[in-house]
Hints:
- This protein is 26% helix and 28% strand.
- It is an alpha+beta fold.
- It folds into two domains: 5-163 and 275-342, Zn peptidases (Aminopeptidase); 166-270, Alpha-Beta Plaits, CATH 3.30.70.360.
- The strands form seven sheets. Strands 1-2-6-3-7-20 form a six-stranded mixed beta sheet. Strands 14-16-10-17 form a four-stranded antiparallel beta sheet.
- The protein is elongated, with a radius of gyration of 23 Å.
- 41% of the residues are buried.
- The model has no long low-confidence stretch (mean pLDDT 97).
Amino acid sequence: xxxxxxxxxxxxxxxxxxxxxxxxxxxxxxxxxxxxxxxxxxxxxxxxxxxxxxxxxxxxxxxxxxxxxxxxxxxxxxxxxxxxxxxxxxxxxxxxxxxxxxxxxxxxxxxxxxxxxxxxxxxxxxxxxxxxxxxxxxxxxxxxxxxxxxxxxxxxxxxxxxxxxxxxxxxxxxxxxxxxxxxxxxxxxxxxxxxxxxxxxxxxxxxxxxxxxxxxxxxxxxxxxxxxxxxxxxxxxxxxxxxxxxxxxxxxxxxxxxxxxxxxxxxxxxxxxxxxxxxxxxxxxxxxxxxxxxxxxxxxxxxxxxxxxxxxxxxxxxxxxxxxxxxxxxxxxxxxxxxxxxxx
Length: 344
């Protein structure tokens, strides 16, 4: 590799800033296409753009007959935060989640191409932060990727390889009551109180821990009840998100602990997914989800790696950032992973 460390650092900074300058909040990912095309074409890629919806396009770049596929997502969460580079730290929306992943992956591919390697591909998908529409659509690209040995999906894992990811369940707990004037509550039935008691019973239940994926956790995200302060609520509901581990019984427990006026609506149920261990790399459980479980279907034997520079602790925050040192380490990690699966 002829590039010096200073050359690499300059390339990373100059590549990431234009990507982060575009507001690619989920639903408007195509705003970032001009900068992305420029970057990929500069590396001599063959490009294929796959429309997913209006203003939303997946991008596949190939070099030869792909055996190693890097992937990450093109969308970001709101609000858009313009990039700024200060003291070797790039601040801004997408800095680590996931535009920093793009340049760390492409930086590795740039190095591999300079070494005469081929058999590489890169895939950017839309919608990971919301509906995963891009990942599902990308399965239609399988005929272009028939010789894949691995999918390396980029997310901010602090350079560790994820042992897998917990499943996801969305539950709606609903309690029915009877409306009445707040001055005569005895004439009605307040739906809120049994719901709150139900939630407390759930809070008191111990949650399991998986040795590879970590603890099962759940979040009370939304709580709704009633129409006005002077009316006894006739209905109340709680929307929960559960990060499940293998063998989870959370939904069953929610039904078992329900009051007579309570019902459970399971609106999403995605199973947990475990990833293979790759010798010579550090592994750790990750607290977040990704498109990896869907995209791994592009690989004939399902081999997948979830890894990248940056920390999930600052992703989605107003302080999102990544250091150029982290990006350099991400380039090295991705290059080593590619060489492992290329057989070199």
